[in-house]
Amino acid sequence: MSLESLQFDNRLTEQxxxxxxxxxYCRSVEHAAFSYVDPTPTQSPVMxxxxxxxxxxxxxxxxxxxxxxxxxxxTGNQILSQMTPxxxxxxxxxxxxxxxxxxxxxxxxxxxxxxxxxxxxxxxLKGAGKTPYSRHADGLAVLRSSVRxxxxxxxxxxxxxxxxxxxxxxxxxxTVLRDKIYDGNAKHELGAITCRVSPSFxxxxxxxxxxxxxDDILLKQLxxxxxxxxxxxxxxxxxxxxxxxxxxxxxxxxxxxxDLIVHWMRVGFVHGVMNTDNMSIIxxxxxxxxxxxxxxxxxxxxxxxxxxxxxxxxxxxxxxxxQWNIMQLANAIxxxxxxxxxxxxxxxxxxxxxxxxxGEMMAQKLGLIKFQGNTDLSLFQSLESLLSExxxxxxxxxxxxxxxxxxxxxxxxxxxxxxxxxxxxEIESLSVExxxxxxQWLTLYIDRINKEGLTHQQRAESMNQVxxxxxxxxxxxxxxIEAAEQGxxxxxxxxxxxxxxxxxxxxxxxxxxxxxxxxxxxxxxxxMLSCSS
Length: 533
Ligand code: AMP
Ligand code: MG
Hints:
Layout: H1 11-15, E1 34-36, E2 46-50, H2 52-57, H3 62-65, H4 68-74, E3 86-88, E4 91-94, E5 97-101, E6 107-114, E7 120-126, H5 143-158, E8 165-178, E9 187-198, H6 204-212, H7 216-230, H8 243-267, E10 269-270, E11 292-293, H9 318-337, H10 340-365, H11 373-389, H12 394-401, H13 414-420, H14 432-450, H15 456-463, H16 474-485, H17 490-498
Antiparallel strand pairs: 1-3, 2-8, 4-5, 6-7, 7-9, 8-9, 10-11
The structure holds adenosine monophosphate (AMP) and magnesium ion (MG).
Magnesium ion binds near residues 277, 278 and 287.
């Protein structure tokens, strides 16, 4: 497939109402799901990274990717005749407050490609210039945040977690003014554009906005569009949508969201800004902003400086917050369903289902064949409090746990400590009481695994398929960004490759599986981030 012959099948623009105005100025957009808008051409675009897997998904080959036409397309300089660039209109709750209309302020969709896999993938340029939804901002993105989005979304995919993908990362050749740490020192940074790819970029907020305006017609159109295109199995055979079709759709969104959060908890991912405009309707991880990865296990940690005091989106609050978000979606679609009770049941069941799924996930992390309800829950919860009590690296801990044999000698502390030495940030600070508590936990754990009948090797293998060895630790991303800002993109490419096999031992890249070094403990970008991107 060559670039020019890409099949664009722009169902969204064909099936949903467009904004009647097509000039590009900021405004309130009503009775429309999107506005047509062209990307702003960029001065001297250069592609610095791309994903061959995502290209293959779109039936593109390496020669296409390496053409100047591709770079031009990925930076908004070339619009193919079949493309119908547009930005989506949506609203959202930001940090618990209804914010009204937000929309794609710096994202411009090029259109949807229908692939030979018989699916559809929308291509979206992030940082491609102002749109009717840019409000007071510039519509641009900097290299720093674009590298983070590019690397993390691909890494999530290889971890087996639903996510938007990233096709390409380009420099625009222009600079962007940003106050990186909100200290009044704005600086010029390199501008960049990431091309994101997903079957759907609709968010919870896409449904909330028409609901807030009592626009039931648009709300219904959006729901049916979503079902027809991304939940096809729910489409009524006779073509007549009923309340139960809408409810089944909501229930599935709720399930997918729950599954997503369980995955995040499994790998130690903290999204950082779980506003309802950042919640994908198809249950993907979307909008990589001030996200972070857990180094030392801490349920109260959030990377987002704007959320430091409240910790609304902290690691351990992601399940509750996602339920709160699901509740906002329920409120939004209520006028179409008109029955509170079944919506309420789904909301109430959310945390019950979460607890069950979380338990099953933890059982896998610990190498247990089957999650056995309450007795296992107390084993998992006591482990989490031990991990929280002293600074223990989450990723290293679970890999080390796989090295605990079924016959580990716990008579003294020396054998088990040898297994976990690398996981502690300050091994000298482990108290005698702590060691004792840990030994007791290991005794329970070994009893539990011995009831399962797996050999140590079998258990270790299954654990190492769910407990990653390589994650995009915040300090590692910072190093790749700092090199890229100096024109060296090799670290991005290297990381991209390492993170393709996150569960596999890669002895030559052992350095990328180390705990956060001391210099990174309080460094901006490693321990905290702002929304400035
Ligand atoms: P976020 O929470 O980062 O996803 O962004 C919230 C809203 O602000 C969304 O509507 C974004 O499109 C918009 N936004 C963020 N950064 C910019 C920017 N530089 N220019 C225009 N809009 C932006
Ligand atoms: Mg967003």
